[in-house]
User: Fold these one by one.
Assistant:
Number 1:
Amino acid sequence: MRRAALLLLVAAVVAAAAHLGLFNIPRLARGVGNLSQFMGDLFPPNFNVAGPVLAALVETVEMSLVATVVGFVAAVPLALLGARNLFGRAVGAPARFVLAAVRTIPALLWAIIMVVAFGLGPVPGTLGLAAYTVGYLGKLMYEAFEAVDPEVLEAVRGVGCSRLQLIRHAVLPEAGSPLVSQVLFMFEYNVRASSILGFVGAGGVGFYMFAYIELFQYRSLMTVIILTLALVLAIDFASGLIRRQFLVGEARPGSPNAGFLAGIWDAGRGVGRRFRGAPPPP
Amino acid sequence: MGRPDELTAIVGRPEGNASAEDGAAPAVALRDLRVRYRPQDDPALSGATLRVAVGESVAVVGPSGSGKSTLLRAAAGFLRAEAGEVSVLGLPASDARLRGRVGYIPQQLGLVRARSAFDNAVMGALSRTATGRSLLGVFSPLDAEVAREALAAVGLERKMHDKVSHLSGGERQRVAIARTLVQRPQLLLADEFVSNLDVAAANDVLALVGKMRDRGVTMLMAMHDLDLVAAFADRVVVLAAGRVVGDFATASLDVQQIKAVMGSRPNA
């Protein structure tokens, strides 16, 4: 049964690839040649453009930061309304529909819509990213709220609290670690997404990427790529540190906070200890 | 373990006055209660009838799946009955006027693990704290002091600011009791909350709860250790297959008889 399913999957992939023209060997061969020439044109990078590119990267980070925070603030009430364990299906369904509708439009399209409405520059880019953040983060958050242990909710309801008190004192603290992780993920996503919003005139470093491609200045483009990569790696590292602070600090066996990332971190620490010859923790 | 004198002092009388307010109404009254979690499931309670008088201490025993947790959750107002009635302190179990008057400790305690022992204990005062204040995390100085004293009384004054996720099982049990002490309920519903403790620790915890009982709090607790039941409860109610199949005074408790009843099937 499994083998038949696997064969069916392989057949479907091969058929789709053929339909897409991926078996057009002469064309692929020409493309590989073009690609190697393009890669050659990227080097050596032209670091003379580093100044304005760095300024654009700062703008990209600013756009991502503001969009993530604004999107988070707007998403929290919608996500709370969408959590069926808090407001039931009658309220949850419309809230989820709104979030799904917002999420259906990709960030780039949101940016185009905002450029049409507000003109060129980082403002429409930031608003476009914020809109997408609401839809995406809202879904992740209502799932985190619904994952809160029902016994905790019943026990805190049992002391006679109101629904707002329940949210403040039980739901948000219990869902805190996943929320931190999701907001950091969204910030990382927004940094990556905002780096191409400049293609549609919505600010950020994408403006330079687009301009250097249009002007065939591939060595300058390589500088943009290197600096963008360095920024993304730096943000990944920083958010990793923050995650560990929030996730590992609370994680204990049996705790809902003992999440996937904390598990990876603990496993990594174990490997590191063995590598250094240190004894395992008690 | 704890400071019983302080405990007695802080527990005080429960909030409200059941006997004056509710006349002769029992603390808990279930009549032919039928509860089903999903339409396709067998009923978790299938015609359970039970009456617990104000001030009484009743233990509910029965095999796994007999409906003990469901009975307590129904009394706490968390479940909708398919048939029958459940009233608490003279009101329907889900009535908003019962807010804060009924304490509930689930089997896994229901503590907010990312918060400190103090934060969890002071949550017991939420029902008498204005929503606006509590949203800012502000409690009255009196309630904060009561929470500190409750934690000291259960032996956790040195771990007051430790996160619950860092506490041991026994310490968490004490935090749950401290939260209930701060709440000052008239009725306490507790679901096997000493089941994971060794006998000595369970006796310690039950001694704390016993102080509440001695101050007039009605108790309805699911338990499985019949020796603890004998030491703690006035009455033992036996559940099997979602129905009450036995009701004994602990003064005349015959463990073998209860075990025999627990193993029997109720008449349809």
Number 2:
Amino acid sequence: MRLFREGSRAIDSISGPLVFVNKIKGAGFGELVTVETGREARIGQVLQVDGEICLIQLFESTVDIDPGKSVVWIERDIFRMPVGLSLIGRILNGHGEPIDGGPPVENCAEGELPVTGLPINPVRRLAPHAYLETGISAIDLMNTLIRGQKLPIFSGAGLPASRIAVQIARQARVPGEESRFVVIFAATGVTWREASYFLNAFRDTGALYHGVFFINLASDSPVERLLTPRLALTVAEHLALEKGYNVLVILTDMLHYCEALREVSAAREEAPGRRGYPGYMYSDLASIYERAGCVKGSEGSITQLPILTMPDDDMTHPVVDLSGYITEGQIVLDRGLHERSIFPPIDVLPSLSRLMGKGIGKGKTDPIHGAMADSLYAAYARSRELRRLKMIVGEEGLTTLEKEYLSFGDRFEGEFINQGETYRPLEESINVAWQCLEALPPTELYRFPDEATQRRRGKTVE
Amino acid sequence: MGHDRLLGEAIRVSKGTADVQVYEATDGVRAGEPVYFSGELLSVDLGPGLLGSVLDGIGRPLGLLANTEIYIGRGWKESPIPKDRRWPFKPRLKAGDTVVPGTALGDVTEKEGFLHMVMTPLVLEAQSEIAWIAPEGEYRATDLICRLSNGIELTMVSRWYVREPRPVAKRLGLEIPFLAGQRILDTLFPIALGGSAVIPGGFGTGKTVTQQQLAKYCNADIIVYIGCGERGNEMTEVLEEFPRLADPKSGLPLMDRTVLIANTSNMPVAAREASVYLGMTIAEYFRDMGKNVAIIADSTSRWAEALREISGRLGEMPGEEGYPAYLGSRLAQYYERAGRAVSLGEPQREGSVTVINAVSPAGGDFSEPVTQASLRLSGAFWALDKSLAQQRHFPAINWRQSYTLYEEDLRDHFVQLLGKEWLELKTFLNETLERGQEALEIVQLVGRDALADEDRWLLLFAELLQTVYLQQNAFDPADAYCPLNKQKAMLALLRSLDEKVRTSLSKGAIYEQIEALPIRQELLKLRSLPVEDFEAEAKRWIDSIRLGGLEQ
């Protein structure tokens, strides 16, 4: 219990989420403050210090703060999040308070950690190398998720990214280590409808009881959105690196996060960069995405699955572009596939998992996994190209081989990609892929080792 | 800076106030805390122990820190040169010898097969005489090893301001090729030792893989790899892979010829800005020993963004896309430190610094300022192409967009190595690719049936050249590195295949018959052979092909 608190009554001005306060001595950058309005207390953070003038951003609304009646208290501490196993199964709001009717989280926490986190020393990192099964063919076989990876889903307005995220959260498993697996879900700026969709879906599948959920609604303060993913990752780091859990962190929707960043930046009157987003957005996003991985001396891992809505399906939008440069690949959803009722509508061609090569193959998944993925990619790319050619020269202009490629493309989309909400183990994905590849003559399967194709052909003859 | 003594650098001074950029996170620093001035510019300790180490953007050894901590905390200071390690030193000179700046005093066996030359500091004043030099034996880096007659005492360690180029005696022309072991680069777009190249490409086009390939297989003696604002996992990958891989020339672990500088994207931006100069200074230091050094930076865009962020916070007038107006001149200060040169001091030695920089253009748009400024300053452009990457064509270097300016200067050297035939083979490759592209455009207009058999073969053959020759499988140990003589043998094989098929077509063979042959599979199999077996096998294969029209 502290007996002495420093404060100031000199609120100078309020602009959007920002409060300018005068007469504060020795405020620290990033320190926590409490603003007492007379009726309630709201929390905020010091953004800028200039002599005795402080710029404070509030994590809650600044509406009805009366400069004359309010007191700003300096807490002499930075923002900390309670962490621990007891958090599993809890639903919290965007700044870490329970909204599930349970007791305050700090009562049973094992400690409190600063939410900004510190960069992990690359020498201490362990390169991600182990496979995480999602039960979705387009991901497991062609864009394999590796424990410790950060792999975003690039979605568009109206595309079912949430459904895919729920499916992954439900199905994801580390082969052989089920009990050590936790999902942490951070929703930033989602609508109430989306939030309840997620919570209901998690409740139905039981994921609610082995996960931690942070919900920042679209109507909550935008400044709070800047905090929510960091709270989630602080809890994740503790569970993964101290407790040895494999943690899957789902962050949705990072576009809302970046818009909040832009809003605060605009309120601070900073020079805008591309499309009004601040110039430091890359560093800021990195401070979130880089909090994934594995380290030496710990069995746990943090895998990130951020969801990003591409405005107008534009992959060059700054938020999408910068995310792509930091994350280790991307899963891209396609409107054309969605319109043809293919689920999940994953377009494998622009999708990529950079770490895939580290976690697949002999002894890890299947010896032909790599060759299979390459063959599917090449064949599907060819079939898509031929579809365009067909529109120009007509079906008659194509050779037999080219027609075979076209039929492969149709089977691939209709059977391999279009799996619905079912769980498909990797062996089954490989089987379906072989069935699609049967549309092609054996000479086109030159990427496989000879034995693999022969064995396969033997099987089909039987 | 402050009670934690964070490291910073003054970047603007006006009327008694100084703006300081801090190389560490400033959370919790309070107004009113003291600031201490060192009276020195940002500098780095140079000496034995750099090879194989991992430094952060301002030269602190991350390997040492990793023994105790998972995270990078704040306020710790450490020299990159290990304090307690003893090095075997062997003097070259004796008391009474005269030295000038840069004179080699002696050698230290730093790694197996690598002699680290201990030189007099470049800041030494003109000529002096050695009063005392340490006899052969084991010394710590900071132990006294030489005293000059004017009283100056020297250790193995010398300090250098990172933003200042290290002076040389004479700059040399760029006529020796920098060989990468990558077919598309060595054959079509070679650069010179001491030259510079940029690799621009959007995300997912394989910049990092291409750069790592270069770091593994290029013919430089020393590699300085700068991970500038990139992913932590990528640095870790390099760290795990390099000690296991062997240098194709010496057979020693790759890590032993590498210095890694890691400023991952979540480390402070100010240190990112400094990291490229740090890397360059270390590269120049090894160049001064007469080594060929390659400095591989990933990526310039992150560096430029750091510059933009700092400039924005200073409230400077922004130039194009918010980058400061001095972006071009700052980049030039970096690129112009590349080159081949004769070092100062005795004995005479020639070394080089080759720069290979990745650029990550926003939205994959090459017209943005960082790509354009880099293009002006560098001699080669290796453009990565998203559509090639999506077809899993790696390295995804677009052969129509890329260029090199070193072609002329390097020609003599290539002819000397491989004979005149090499130039013919190159022309053959270029022309076939070009004609293949034209044929493809025609097909897209009129359909394939309108083509004559020869043109249909041309289409197929151009595609073969792409899959077999231009693509290179980084994950196949036999193909990841392709020496120059194998490149020549492969091209020769492909040319004789083309000749054979053409003759056969002109004598009445039917195209469908050729299409049905498993040419691609056979060629890919041949490609995986080691260079010693390749030529004989290739000849056997080409002779074994039976085509209609040739028997008569």
